[in-house]
Amino acid sequence: MRPTLARLAEELCLSGYAVNSPRGAECVVAGDASAVAAFESRLRELLRNGIPVGAVVEAIESQSFDPQGHAYREQGGDQLGEFTIRSSVIPEADGASLSAKVPPDAVVCDHCLRELRDPRDRRHHYAFLSCIACGPRYSIVDAMPYERGRTTMREFPLCPRCAEEFDSTTNRRFHAETTACPACGPQLWLSRDGSRADAIYGHDAVRQAATVIRNEQVLALKGLGGYQLLVAARSDRAVGELRRRKRRPAKPLAVMVRTAADAAALATVSDVELRWLHAPSGPIVICDALANHSLSRGVSCGLHTVGLMLPTTPLHVLLLDELDMPLVCTSCNLDGEPILFEGNGSRSALAALADNCIEHNRPIRRPVDDSVLRVMAGRPVGIRIGRGLAPASIAAPTSVPIIAVGAHQKVAVAIANGAQTVLGPHIGDMGSTATRRRFVEQQRELADLYGTPEALLVADEHPDYFTTAWTRSRVEDSTKPVSAMMVQHHHAHVVSGMVEHGWLDRQVLGIAFDGVGWGRDGTLWGGELLLATAAEFDRVGSLRPFRQLGGEQVVREPWRVALALAHEVIGDEAMRLGLAPASDCELLLRASGLSPWTTSVGRLFDGVAALALGIHRAEFEGQPAMLLESSTARCDLQGAAKSDRAAYRFDIGIRADGMLELDWRPAVQQVIADVAIDASPASIGARFHDALALAVFKAAAHWPTLPVVLSGGVFQNRCLVERLASAAADDERPWGLPGIIPPNDGGLAAGQIAIAAARAVQ
Ligand SMILES: [Zn+2]
Ligand SMILES: [Zn+2]
Question: 681 CA distance to ligand 1 centroid (A)?
């Protein structure tokens, strides 16, 4: 912002200064009245036209001073000389919580790309070039306001040539805080474990890295927000070895391609998907893979999709220019652990995971994973919010400082400091000690960055979640008065959808479908209809409950769900469906009274997938449901007209307690019958998706005037969301489909914070 202000002031011969403050960019100009007026009108016009790129304009405030008056002298007006950019106001000195936006990391821009590839340019092949429009931001910032001296780039004083560019208003690197060149900036090397021992430097390191990948070995690379692992995506051997070392047998892996044309050779890429591939945030975009793609089958492991991304940093560009082949690009960690980002101390981990490591000496201050999006019904849906998108501003304004900590999986922290509310980057699942440690660090670091030392803490009602226990301990251990609020899991899901659509002032019908969350009646909820406001909710309907045979084990053993569902429908015949040895089935059913009740739609999907696809064991949570979606997508892609097939049926009834119930029994009966006649899994999947979408639509018709909000992990399913979107197109009231705030647990903190904010004003 400041360079734009300076250029404009210079053109109009105005004196004054620009400065970054905790409130945003501030500027004082003095001069001829008509020139000052022109400054303001031209500035407004520039901002309307999206200049400078990436600027977020929430409000423009201006104030004029009489040059004879006291206030003018108090502002130092009579001492203004030539227009300058002043060093920033330190927030502590100002005493305000941060209201300026923390700039997100941006992928390398086209201008810098041209320099990178131009042999005559002094930054030719220089992996750390950046400018006013691109480069690292959030991942390297120590404290706000954003300025080189408060980023990890402060370790690299500018050389005379870079300093000249930095000071020249006509240069595109004028006040580009992260600018650098080979003479003064960070350096690159390659070695076995990333240490400097026997290292190869400069572009030779990139060439050697390319050789590592060509040899089907695993390369670690220090990316923008942490280390990544890269292998040749067409090589079964390399992909298999990567999976073995990461201990990640089946979860899909993302693929980085050199150009959009390369992406189109692997997947169908819609215009919206293309736009996101090219966005400055540079996310992974989950697209439908082409049937004849050239990737190793080990990349997607049976799913019909592939996560694609373009090169994000100059280093990735250089590597792909050398190789010109698709690369698997995944975070460097053991599955379930947080992304590695500090070289020191991680050398042995790097050496264990990779054959060689490309390292550099620009420190990462804040680890951040790549973002993942999926386009559904033409809208981007957040699957994981990280590099380039987080911290994401969310429209949940409150004057109360609040920190919300999410639930247990896909944890992300949300922070409200009174001036703004943001959803922080993805941290991970709280199953491992390392991720828990990362969670504690990250909530503290975000609180420091945004200036919220003491805040109301918000967590999930589930008593056993690490984040909930941590919240309680903070309240008990604190010497200062800290208070906490627990909120119900599915209410938080629904309210996160209300935040997404700006509906916090309304009552909505929330449809929350997910794996499981803590229910208030002692059962595991996961298929809920809630009449909700931001502050409160009333549970008015749910999926018909079933026994989760063997508790948590069902996540990995979906046949248990299939057995429970089938037993309700066809009795002991269920034991002869071949789901598991009859003795195992009998044992399990006999002890079913010990298993918890659940209304989880996620589990229902797992059970139907086990019946339709014969899946006995899942490699990760949600895999059976994803495979069922893939079958369905294949059916949809074949253009099988919906009129050619009849949807299965859910009955919708009202229970004795007045709650509406989505009864899955007719649908499961039809699935079993179709499996018995060897119907294709694709058609079974499609008819099941049709049925569920229809059931949701019919259930929603019981509350015909309320806006509908869809949230919960089940709505990462594009086949389901697009069916609902087309049904909803004819409905008079609005349907809030999932958006950038993840519908899965990654978006929960956004809902939690809005609930706490709403209750705080009551
Ligand atoms: Zn650039
Ligand atoms: Zn330089």
Answer: 48
